[in-house]
């Protein structure tokens, strides 16, 4: 059974806005992958229950999500994770990821392991913030020379939070040496390069889940 480590944010506030995980960016891939027979483990830097951005769901959640949310009710701490146990890692989005994913030693170590061992590395929307400031053992950017996507500057401006976030993700990914691609605002867009699979926005979640599954199968 293939095992996927899904990493979510612990941050529940950005400026005066309540934030957290963008729920569909965990649940939609987790649903796809568990139905395919993969094992999903939820993880975060601090562990425990993951805050969910209230803008990412209504009071009525799809029934197909029943049971799939369990891994984010009590996530494992990254310091307790043995990367040898996993075939792939996936960084979920939500604005909270912009605060706790960058410049993190545990994330750097995990990314270095998955990159050096040519295991799948995925990220969606703000999830590629995990590639900002995190380097391999040679002190080189994890995504230097890699084609990737993530939430665009134009999309961030449209949220009204561009002044609240610590940086614009598109700019920082380019600064890290990545070859950034955008499919346009709110357009489904997934980029595959080497062992990296990235999606631009929530609209890309289902497609990235399918592509990730195909590469793991």
From TrEMBL:
GO MF entries: glyoxalase III activity
UniProt keyword list: Glutamine amidotransferase, Lyase, Stress response
Record Pfam families: DJ-1_PfpI (PF01965)
Leader sequence residues: none
GO CC terms of this entry: cytoplasm
DJ-1/PfpI domain segment(s): 24-206
GO BP terms in the entry: methylglyoxal catabolic process to D-lactate via S-lactoyl-glutathione
Family: Belongs to the peptidase C56 family. HSP31-like subfamily.
Identification of the protein by name: Glutamine amidotransferase
Organism in which the protein naturally occurs: Halobacillus andaensis
């Amino acid at each position: 059974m293939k095992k996927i480590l899904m990493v979510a944010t612990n941050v529940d506030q950005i400026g005066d806005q309540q934030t957290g995980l963008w729920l569909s960016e965990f649940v939609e891939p987790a649903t796809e992958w568990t139905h395919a027979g993969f094992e999903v483990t939820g993880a975060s830097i601090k562990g425990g229950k993951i805050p969910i951005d209230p803008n990412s769901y209504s009071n009525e959640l799809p029934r197909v999500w029943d049971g799939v949310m369990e891994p984010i009710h009590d996530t494992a701490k990254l310091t307790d994770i043995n990367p040898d146990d996993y075939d792939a890692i996936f960084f979920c989005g939500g604005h909270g990821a912009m605060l706790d994913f960058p410049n993190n030693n545990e994330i750097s170590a995990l990314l270095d392991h998955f990159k050096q061992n040519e295991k799948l590395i995925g990220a969606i929307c703000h999830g590629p913030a995990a590639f900002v400031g995190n380097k391999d053992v040679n002190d080189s950017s994890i995504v230097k020379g890699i084609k990737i996507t993530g939430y665009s500057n134009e999309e961030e401006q449209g949220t009204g939070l561009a002044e609240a976030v610590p940086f614009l993700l598109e700019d920082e990914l380019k600064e890290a040496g990545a070859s950034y691609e955008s499919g346009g605002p709110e357009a489904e867009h997934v980029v595959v390069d080497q062992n990296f699979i990235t999606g631009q926005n929530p609209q890309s979640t289902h497609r990235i889940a399918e592509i990730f599954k195909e590469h793991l199968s």
